[in-house]
């Protein structure tokens, strides 16, 4: 388990955020963002391509290649 808060990052210590997740779930993990909620794939490079989609968007079927 990891956290981005300063207490965990700088001290490598178990923080209150980690304790909250562990107490709120059975296995100590939580899906903060489900795959269904993703608006764009990781490493989207569509910016600057005009109407042409980047490969990650085509591969995840978010956008189609133009005919």
Written description of the protein model:
The protein is mainly α and 67 residues long. The protein folds into two domains: 1-32, no CATH class; 35-67, no CATH class. Helix content is 30%, strand content 0%. The protein has three helices and no strands. It has helices spanning 6-11, 16-24, 55-59. The longest helix has 9 residues, at 16-24.
SSE arrangement:
Layout: H1 6-11, H2 16-24, H3 55-59
Order of helices and strands: HHH
Kindly state the mean pLDDT as a whole number?
78
Rg result = 18 Å
Find the count of extended strands (DSSP E, 2+ residues). 0
Question: What is the SS-derived class?
Answer: mainly alpha
**Which segments are poorly predicted (pLDDT under 50) over 5 or more consecutive residues?**
none
Individual helix count: 3
> What's the helical proportion of residues?
25-40%
Pick out its properties.
2 domains, 67 residues, mainly alpha
Short note summarizing the structure:
Helices cover 30% and strands 0% of the residues.
